[in-house]
Amino acid sequence: MGPRSDQTLLILGATGDLAGRLLLPGLGALVATGNAPDIALLGCDLVDWDDQRWRERVAESFAAAGANGAQAAALSGATTYLRADVTSPDDWRRLLAACDGSVVIYFALPPAIVERACHALTGVSLPAGTRLVFEKPFGTGADSATALNDLVTRLVPEDQVYRIDHFLGTSTVLNITGMRFGNRIFEPLLNAENVAGVDIVFDETLGLEGRAAYYDHAGALVDMIQSHLLEVMSVVAMEPPSTITARDVRDAKAQVLRATRVWNDDPAASSHRARYTAGSVDGRHLPSYIHEDGIPADSTTESLAEVVLAIDTWRWAGVPFRLRSGKALGHPRQEVVFTFKSPRWIPAGLTGGDQPDRLHMSIALDAGRLDVDLNVNGPGDPRVIKPVTFGTDLGPGQLPAYGEVLLNVLSGDPILSVRGDMTVESWRIIQPVLDAWRQNRVPLEEYPAGSTGPDGWPLSGVPATPTPVGPPQPLPA
To answer: What is the pTM of this model?
Structure first.
């Protein structure tokens, strides 16, 4: 492994899709921007690779991320690969003996293997300062998340456990805190007195993209809403933290989740589910979800989910939060939208002004925007109020999402990690919806791939985020 380092990043599942598509490019971006600490890199999997093949994969990922300097060459040239079964305590001892300094163990593995691997670790002595990094979903429900929390915190303290939500590593989500707490023009208005509703939407054009085995087990509700969009919601709705540090921010987010429930406690009336049929998206033909490779013929998994939630706090009581995410949709739309209440009074003699003001914040993974829909006196007759949209690009940030995540993990800052109690609350929130769907109390509808979703859904038929200074593109009431 070359010269000894103070820290080793051990990637489990090193030959898999997650490592190749996200983790290694994220590490490469850290190196390319000069933010990477001095580490050793060790890959592990059951696949029969050798050091040379592993180094080639690392070098290719680094090059794709623009990491071509001396640090990239040294790291990719010295990294090693070990074939090991992480459900075996003896193999764990062999892996840990090959690590330098403190160890960051990244579990890029299926959830069932993760749990077995953690059980195997209970009989193994871990180096001081070991950090454990887990991908979503964390558990399969509130009870299993609680049990898994108990298991991993027997291995290391909670502040050394990193439950990754890469959405929190995107600058576009972090921009929400800057917009809310850095602008007096917005923050005093973001409450139940002024806001009629909040929509958090992540509609994408992608289909399954080879993830059928995982996705059909999870579906849109678990894959996106249970983890990602509830996390975004907690940032959108949290009270101002005293500091932007892990403890204060995560306390504020956890308070939101504890106060959240399904709207009117009626999951059947407050949720929708659907899956796509054959169609075209961006010129690509997609088969029906049920005919995608790897999907069983009796599958009832949804590819589009929508849930309305209530947050029982002074700030948000009575404001519906609608969370929606889906695949194979014709218009990529990833944003948070605050819809404000109508003006109390428009003086007689003025016409128009019947469209509510809205604040749009992008949560796309590769770009950021802020747009504000307002009613103003337009050109021509000054007594006619017309809607316009003002907007600005916020930029994609210096690092990709996994670069931000890895930077925080390697530097020991858990601010972008989901705390254990928050994983349990997230499962608690959606469990009534899961139960209602399993009992067929909510119909599984259909929509053609490339459309905007089923007709009649509140957020279907909505175009993408507005462009600056022009006619706004409204959400249905």
So the answer is: 0.90
